[in-house]
Please model this.
Amino acid sequence: MEFSIVIDYNIKEIDDKELDEEIQFEYYKRVYREGNEKKERVYHDVVKFFKKKILIEGKRTAIIDLDNCWKTKKSNYKRCILSSLFYAYNFYGQPIEIKSIIIRDNFKNEVYIPFEQEFNSALPSDYAINLSIIEYLFKSITYKEASDVVYRVLHSQALYTKGNDFYDAYRSFNAMYTFIYKYHNELAHKGEKNSDLRAIISILRMNNIEKILKKSIDLSENFVSGYTEELYRLVLKWLMDEKVSNKDEVATIVCFPEFKYKNIKVLEIINEILEKNYPNSSTTDKRKPLKGFDSNYKKKKKEDRKNYLQLLTLYARYRRNKLLHGEHVDHRFLISDVNADILLDISKIIFQFSIDLVNNIEESDFSKAKIF
Model:
């Protein structure tokens, strides 16, 4: 049985860009034997991109239920529709107004698929994902792990671009740090696979990570420069929520033993918190988590710009956990609270962090996990 899906849409501003592409969308793998030889065959549909139109064509051996085949969460028809729109959205970077989505079979039956307008905001160039990365979406059989994580990030991209919600930004970040911590050559097979804190720390300590995270580090530096006093108060409130009682616990919460902060602005914020609020050391902690702090502080270095992102990412994780467990409510509900602009800027940093990571997926970096 043959089928086709036609997506008609409008683009407000094309700027002479015209999408003319054909991509195969994998949907099923058959494993079989010929004699003593095991063989595999991957089946695919064909996605054709035209000006203001996407055409998906394929065939199935069974009868296709046009009324329901696109409704389930795991529907290949739905995934192909979304993948195609994600591709077009990142190609143009402009709002997409979907006019209609129609599925037909070769018996002249057709169904209009209902939809919401999820792509009606312009996509900032810094938030765009490389089309070569998005192509993993269409290879969910050959590169399942990469396809799945890119699919999650692109969902968050559309939602965050539309609403600038902190939780959407963190969801995208969560997808990426989980993927990298689990499969990257430098981090794979290293302990606590279910620890998001360990995953975040490990990624922020990777070799040459500054080159990958240049955009998010730039945003972090600008944030700390513009909100130094506010960041002091935010970090202090974080420590109070964690019921910190001494300077060694402060060092543990801000992960000084792991990051060994050297940037003077970051050290000044931590030092002021220690002097004004936590003058005493722990009487029981033998790890000496503040070891090296005084030495680094005296050097007053302006380098190690990644320290900005390291501290802000830890704070973002704390805020995400408070939202997840219902301890904090939406800061923009009806009347934005005093920290609404600050949390928006932090969400931009965290979302950019995820985009920096996804755009720097290199197959050779995941060779040990054999997912490519």
Notes: The first strand starts at residue 2 and ends at 11.
